[in-house]
Amino acid sequence: MPERKKVLLRLDPAVHDALARWAGQELRSTNAQIEFVLRRALDEAGRMPKDAGDVPRRGRPRKRRPDDEESGPDEQNPKEEGPSEDR
């Protein structure tokens, strides 16, 4: 993954405080919230570059069980499909 760009951003203190509160409610850092909002705005405007990478996942990796290795990312938490005959 290419190195991420670093930018200096000057914000009105009230705007920064509002972003920081919003980020806290969404369990993100203020920096991650700014990127989230910018990406959403680019996507909604149809201006998201096709070569833009995904947002890097941060934090502790999820614990993996031995049976998770066989399933894909969408299959790690299968939903029940109705009552089981065993019950």
Order of helices and strands, N to C?
A: HH
Largest sheet: none
- Output the number of helix runs: 2
- Share in β-strands: under 5%
Q: How large, in whole angstroms, is the Cα Rg? A: 19 Å
Distance between the termini: 48 Å
Strand runs, count: 0
Percentage of helical residues?
25-40%
**Morphology:** extended
- What structural class do you assign from the helix and strand content? mainly alpha
* Overall mean pLDDT: 80
Uncertain spans:
none
Short description:
With 87 residues, this protein is an all-alpha fold.
Overall description:
This protein is an all-alpha fold and 87 residues long. It is 32% helix and 0% strand. The chain has a domain of 40 residues. The longest helix has 15 residues. The N and C termini lie far apart (48 Å). 0% of the residues are buried.
What keyword list fits this structure?
87 residues; single chain; Ribbon_hlx_hlx; Arc_rbn_hlx_hlx; 2 helices; Toxin-antitoxin system HicB family antitoxin; 0% strand; mainly alpha
Provide the fold topology.
Elements: H1 13-25, H2 30-44
Helix pairs in contact: 1-2
Organism: Nocardiopsis coralli
Protein name: Toxin-antitoxin system HicB family antitoxin
InterPro entries: Arc_rbn_hlx_hlx (IPR013321), Ribbon_hlx_hlx (IPR010985)
